[in-house]
Amino acid sequence: MITYIKKSIYSSNYPAGYWLLFSCEAISRYAFWAIQSLLVLHLINNLNFSKFRAYEFIGSYIALTYSMTFVGGLIGDKLLGYFYALFIGLFSLIVGCILILFNNKIYLLGFSFLVFGIGIVIPNITRYVGVLYDANLGLNRSRGFGTFYLASNLGGICGPLIAGFINYYYGWQYAVASIILCYSLWLICFLFFKNIQKLKAEQPIKSYKIFLSLLLLLLSVLLMLTYQFLVSNYLIILTFSAFIYVYLSCRKLDMAAMLLYILIGLLVALLFFTFEFQILSSLLIFSKDFVNTRIFGVDIPVTSLVSIEPLFVVILIPSFNRVWEKKKLLPMKKLVLSMFLLGLSYCVFLVLSIFYYYVQSPLSLLWIVIGIMFMAAGEVCLMPSLLTFISENAPLKIKSTSFGILYITISISGYLSSELAKLTSVVSSHSHKSLAFILVYFMIAAICFMVAILVYVFTKRKAESYST
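and the corresponding structure tokens:
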């Protein structure tokens, strides 16, 4: 692993400035995943939410966070340019982190700033990587995005792990302070990146209407976090509008045939992340209630388990990159493999649930780790392939928006994941609580294997036109 990283740093496959962006992405994801991992327990323990209400809030938060990336892509493409969009996004994230330190109603405004900021940052930093490769067309873009995805997971490892320990031993305020520090470092690094690269930043459209539009967007997020029943309606409208926009753009450029493959990829991603996001909700509660997390006399914060999945992603990416380069697997086969591996993951969790139901004794943490390992392997098969496909094939004028489409799909997954997690909280008796997990995890595993079979059959019957 270390050898791979050293070779990657000095490899000619990466343009100048790539590794600074890589570092900024890792810092950003530390903060992002720290909040995601701490949120459900913060709501229950500090804000006195019920599990049902906590699942609902985190589902709405995740849905709004990822869906806002579509709007953030539009802001970068049409209004501000990627540099100024990133600057505003990072500033909003710092403000949001300060506001969520409060336990009164102002925390809703803080989470609104976080949704707004993350929605702008995610698609535009991905586009920034694409800009570097656009200026260096001879470099291996696929490998670059695969390695860049590794940065996201490095941050995902450190965020839940470090912030989880800080939160467990010192409290929520200190954990959030570490997140504020990370976003501040991100902002400093990004400004430094602009100066040393001397890339021409796109000039924003200067108008008071832009300011009013951004303010209205922020207030809309606040309204939906306050009245969460609005989120489902918002997702339906946004999804329909986004697909119509992209379809019309592709049709004008005679690229409508590409939409079939994108649609299949997005449907698989929708199901994959609906099930994977259980690690932020029901799997956290499952581990808290049924798993022995004490190792060598040290209590491991249950939120730190969230870092296991990105840790395995980081470990597995080099091996999978080599396999893809040798085997030249087509995208559809990668989708099949991703769902199969996710199904194996939930088979492990299903067996654990059944075991606890009959034995009623704490479960070994090792089996949770094994289940998460299969989950991580599935993600490695799925996400880099989709990111590369969009980067190579999306029209230039809607490239950031196209990345946003992917994250709209993930946002719907976040919302559906919370609805799925609610099913695990219907049994109140502790001795029978694992029964709800048995039913939910059996359903998830069955769906994963069925989808894998269906996509495999489709692959056998229809030759693919695109490869990553």
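(Above: one complete record from the training split.) The first helix runs from residue 2 to 9.
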